[in-house]
Amino acid sequence: MRYSLVATLVFASAIHADEPKKRLPVPSDADQNVAVKVIADIYKGDYEKAKTSERRIELAKKMLADAMATKNDAVGRYVLMRITRDAAAQSGDVETTFAAIAEIARGYTVDVPLMKSDVIRVLATKNPSAEVYQRLYLEASSLTDTWVVEDRYDLAVPLLQSLLPAARKLRDPVALKQVTLRVKEVEEIEKEHGSVKASLGTLATNARDGEANLTVGRFLCFQKGDWAKGLPHLALGNEKTLATLATVELGEKPDRLALGDGWWEQAEKSDGVSKQNLQRHAAECYRAVLAVLSGLSKVRVERRLAEIGKKVAAEIPTKPKVIDKEGPTSLELKKIADLDGHNSKPGMSHLAFSPDGRLLAEEDGATILVRDVAKREVQSRLNCSERIQSLAWSHDGKFIAAGRATNDARVIEVWNVPEAKRLTTVEDAGIAYLQFSPDDTIVAASKGSTIGFWRPSGKLVSSPPGDRFAFSPTQKVVAVAGKNKITVASYQGGGEMVIDLPDGNIFDLKYLPDGRTVALLYSGRNSRIDLLDLAQRRIKLSIPLAGDPWYLAVSPDGCIIAAIVSKSVFFWNAKSGRELYVLGDPKPVAEDDDIFFVDFSSDGKTFCICARNGMQLWEMTYGKP
Asked: Which pTM was predicted?
């Protein structure tokens, strides 16, 4: 029976490997019930042995692997993944739970947000660690954003409330305050939404009704933060000050400083969510002109930005994930593959591991190769129209963003990987440092002097000044490198926190998984890697470099930092700064070659090198204290 369900199906995986797969409907209850009985029989012995939480987690991972190997039994595959999802959630295994949901979403037409909501509620009852809790909060917050847009408060509020007991058990005041305020915000929006329904009805029959437009405009802008939809209503509203501000902002060349002052004045008269969204919007106006301000105007604007920046600082984790006390004592690397299948010359310049580590997205000229890491085989090819220069996976593993360039044009393409379908093309975009936000609501890239934040649909959210940047893994903020400073700001608009730094040219930066530490790679005469503690606003570790650095990478557990220096790759203990390994004698690439990019797999066991003349996979072995 097991052979028919799993083993024989592996051979089908190579058939039509490059063809896109359409998602299937969820099997009927009757068909699922039959499959449940078959699976119970197959795994009877495994169930009996799984008496401890550790054994149950091992079994869940085994079942997920079996489900992924099942190719021509749609019912059995779905039920096996569903059982895996539920078993992993009951055991508190967040990674396997969300991996199972990602696999279900790839193959079947399901309500993914509702499915995630269900497992978050279960996982929240399993005494999650601080790290797991932050993952659950980020997922819940992202779902809440979606449901607030859809006015589904009946789903958003209970989900957030389910996290409160877990936050209290952590005894972390920041985590508890964070979710408590989020609950209050959504409840406030829900309350206001009730009074808006009548006004929406009025506008259906009289689109220029002043009172109805005012009510709807205030709700959209002040409560939901949807200024694009709300400003036209405020402009038609019967409140003179708000109508004037909205009309000016909708004009061709609005005075951003005056608008910032006007919206800030409105924020001073408000409280709760309204005050927060008004201050965020005022800050967006201020940042658009800050670089050209001087004198008292600049002082006033900087003080206001600093005021709301305190809110950003308050959300930095005070109890981050603890890295091993000493970290790894040694590291060994062994090359396990030279990956071929690339047609472009002079070769690759970028790659990205999928969040679950099963797939690699590789640049091959104007084509994205999606490769099965275990089999070393190209699974699909996504054809862009110009040479690709940057790649990024969404955190749910469903989408790839590709930055391509031709002459002066810079374009981002967003692809649905399971369906091999291009979803969005963003014109006139930056492509450097391309990445998704942790909640996948934003695609961001550098355009030189500004950073573009887009929705995956292609809608531009904002374009603040900056170049090199990194998203926090635990909060909805982004760290932006500037001249002798780091700015940490909400990518939803609003406050920012500025930390002054020693002189030096920041060439690259990466967050560590704790959400509190940022690794900074400096180039030039004083090339080095600094680890910046955001909460304490100080450099806690500095690693000098003997050579010209190019790229920085951090292992998924935050224990190891790697950097390209000249034609070698160096690895350091992130706790002590001790050098662990140098991939450079002999050099991993020829003298006439260059290393463009490196990355860790999601489990930290595989390291990938992307060079001009090809790509290599290396197996990593750690020595523990």
From this structure: 0.65
